[in-house]
Amino acid sequence: MRNTKLNFMLKATLMGAIGFILSMIETPLFIFPDFLKLDISEITTIISGFALGPVYAVITSVIKNGLGLFQSTSGGVGQIANLIIGLSFAIPASLLYRRKKTRAHAIQGLILGTLCMMAAGVLTNYYILLPFYANVMKFPINAIIAVANAINPRVETLTDLLLWVIAPFNLLKGSIISLITILIYKKLSPLLHK
User: Fold this and answer.
1) Contact (Cβ atoms closer than 8 angstroms) between residue 99 and residue 105
2) In this structure, is residue 168 part of a structural domain?
3) What residues contact residue 181 under an 8 Å CB cut-off, 6+ apart?
4) What is the pTM of this model?
5) Alpha helices, H only, the chain
6) pLDDT tens-place string over residues 58-74
7) Which residue range is the domain that position 19 belongs to?
8) 32 lies in a domain?
9) DSSP 106
10) CATH of the domain at 95
11) Domain count, the chain
């Protein structure tokens, strides 16, 4: 039992380190403002959750975001937000998959996780990220709205920003991560179960 826990802990740590490396590969999406960039590092968190369990998804995410603190330009606020948003995706998905490890449950879990990620993205931006940038970084919310408005003319208020930019971005990110997870999980699963 102890060896299994240690083995799982080492695998979750390795997945966290891989996630950190993946987080450095960011892709801007032309349909969103430049301050939103896609990275697929949550794949390591969800794969840990599916293969090892929800607790190890948390460990993977904490390590990935903890390592990210060394490169942070936001005083760690971005990593905290990423941790919250990422775990809101991985925990529901891995809990549902854990109940019955079938492809259908994996897909249902990923859909649920994506929806939770979208909601957490809106709430985290509203309560943590946007106030931080406005109050601490002295980057007014109106300036953020203006940047978003240049890409999407529907964005005129904070609510518009959350509904027309933040929510769709997290929906797209969760969908891409889900698709990649479905494509690679069964191939990687044997490595994590050794």
Assistant:
1) yes
2) no
3) 43, 46, 47, 50, 106, 110
4) 0.91
5) 2-23, 42-52, 54-68, 77-99, 103-124, 130-135, 141-151, 158-161, 167-192
6) 999 999 999 998 887 77
7) 2-116+174-192
8) yes
9) H
10) 1.10.1760.20
11) 1
